[in-house]
């Protein structure tokens, strides 16, 4: 039964190319944007730019998304594929991508301060900003339409740079340039149906590093963000697993499994094993490709595989917990909350965006108890050349987390009388 369950989960993911884009391509998007933007300017974390950027949006992104979704709905895809398409479109919406994924880590680092203002206010306060980014009306629709249908001209943003802020302006230009390159890759993937897409994101030199607290070699920006984005995006597997499980319940697949005399514990263990396996596969693919794209090398492969396995088990336990809560509430609220808010909080505390120790030692200690934070700490120690004894605290934290969350998930899973 377990083998069949695992095979089904793999096939579901392979057939869902939009999900592959979000879970595999998006980490590379963020690694490239953060790595190049910070790598070209950071000098061992000692530069404090605090560049001020004004963003003027002349349209309504939600209206643009609704319009493009209406057009894709005419393709008459299966409901699940249509839902995945809508999720992928929302993930690629440019304004949301900038506001939720690109700008926050730079603002948290103190490198960038972003204000969203009107066109009139921008004209009055133009001397207050290093640059003003104007997003034309219907830009989101035009960009996604150009990406999906290959019709018309590629829409353009307007960036006005103020003289006298060359370094700050250059950083902002680098960020937008990297975003533009990632959309070019998305378009190439769309042309090939997700297969045979180029992996080399850019040929610019990799510079910049984070200062470490030991005498070991410093970790460059790309290595740091490869590990940081890897542990963060592994968590999204859990919410996806829980959402799929609830859809199985609503389509009576779960009830047919129960009629086949499969115990609830066995079903939840299948969720646990599937979540862990898919997370491990995602981690291996991401870090494997990072070796070729960013030249990220692991000095101790055995320790790397060990940390990856423990992180994957933690993701499996979260999958069980979210599945149980979804079943109990008969909604996807738990998995949606986890993917939209909790993952971002975990990523912040765990240091995926920047070394949180620069802000507070308390936050750093809190982050070490999150699954991504514990795994991230272990990865960084491996990359710095430490051995198995130094990463054992991370493994212990991941093991305890997995056991506790798995037990809570088993306890919360509703019995037959409580099924809706």
Automatic annotation (TrEMBL):
Stated name of the protein: ABC transporter permease
UniProt main location, coarse: membrane
Domain ABC-2 type transporter transmembrane: start-end pairs: 20-411
Subcellular localization(s) per the UniProt record: Membrane
Organism: Caldibacillus debilis
Chain ranges passing through the membrane: 20-42, 222-246, 267-292, 304-325, 337-356, 395-413
Keyword Plastid among record annotations: no
Pfam families per the UniProt record, alphabetical: ABC2_membrane_3
Annotated GO CC locations: membrane
The UniProt record lists the keyword Hydrolase: no
GO-annotated molecular function: ABC-type transporter activity
Domain of life of the organism encoding this protein: Bacteria
Stored InterPro entries: ABC-2_transporter, ABC2_TM
Protein topology in the membrane: Multi-pass membrane protein
Keywords: Membrane, Transmembrane, Transmembrane helix
